[in-house]
Design goal:
Helix 2 packs antiparallel against helix 3. The chain has one domain: Helix Hairpins. By secondary structure, the protein is mainly alpha-helical. The N and C termini lie far apart (37 Å). The protein contains four helices and no strands. Helices cover 86% and strands 0% of the residues. The longest helix has 28 residues.
């Protein structure tokens, strides 16, 4: 799946600032692809292509999230994920 060595090599080659820009770019591309899902598609092929594009952009973002764990504090990120998952669980129980 995701090869951490390759991600670290990209950071080493192009630098943290460039990779942070890539994270921003990939997230923006996912946002745009998700916006297109909400449009009415004229054909089934249009809809299938829109869903494929979202899957493709999710893959890019997933890779960049893995790389972001190399750029930022992975333990802190995981701690925040745990906190937010617990908060979501609590919200679901209370509604």
């Amino acid at each position: 799946m995701i090869d951490i060595k390759i991600l670290q090599n990209a950071i080493d080659k192009w630098g943290a600032d460039a990779q942070i820009e890539m994270i921003i770019e990939e997230c923006a591309e996912l946002i745009l692809a998700l916006q297109k899902i909400k449009r009415h598609h004229k054909t089934k092929e249009d809809k299938n292509q829109a869903y494929f594009n979202v899957s493709d952009e999710i893959a890019d973002v997933k890779i960049m999230i893995a790389q972001s764990e190399l750029l930022f504090d992975k333990e802190l990120i995981n701690s925040r994920v745990e906190f937010k998952m617990n908060r979501l669980s609590d919200k679901l129980k209370n509604n």
